Amino acid sequence: MSVAGIFISSINQTKEYYEFIKNSVFDLIYGYVEVKCANKLCNVIYKLSRNSQCVKHNMSYACNMGCSLSAFNQNDEE
Predict the structure, then answer these.
(1) Strands 45-48 and 33-36, bridge-based pairing
(2) Residues 52 and 21: beta-carbon distance below 8 Å
(3) Which of 5, 34, 57, 60 could form a disulfide with 1 if both were Cys (CB 3.0 to 4.6 A apart)?
């Protein structure tokens, strides 16, 4: 690996550490992100960290496989 490649990868790693620490501090100050289950009939609300994958990538979140399948069927009907 070239010196430039090592330098760029270390910058990316430093950026990821900064984002992780920043999100952790925001969790402590402002509280966790509240996410409602993707199933419209389910009323469960979860408190997730800003560092969790579903929050980072803006993914739908379901509490279990039954709710996930029900949400998928609801989306197909619309």
Answers:
(1) antiparallel
(2) no
(3) 5
Secondary structure letter of residue 42 according to DSSP: -
Side chain identity, residue 42: C
For 36, the enclosing helix (H) or strand (E) is strand 33-36
Encode the chain (78 residues) as per-residue pLDDT tens digits.
Answer: 576 667 677 787 888 889 999 989 998 999 888 888 888 888 888 888 888 877 777 777 778 888 888 877 876 665
- Total domains present in the chain: 1
Strand-pair partners of 35: 46
Q: What are the backbone dihedrals phi and psi of residue 36, each rounded to the nearest 5 degrees, phi first?
A: -90, 145
DSSP summary character for residue 52: S
Note whether 45 and 34 are within 8 A (CB): yes
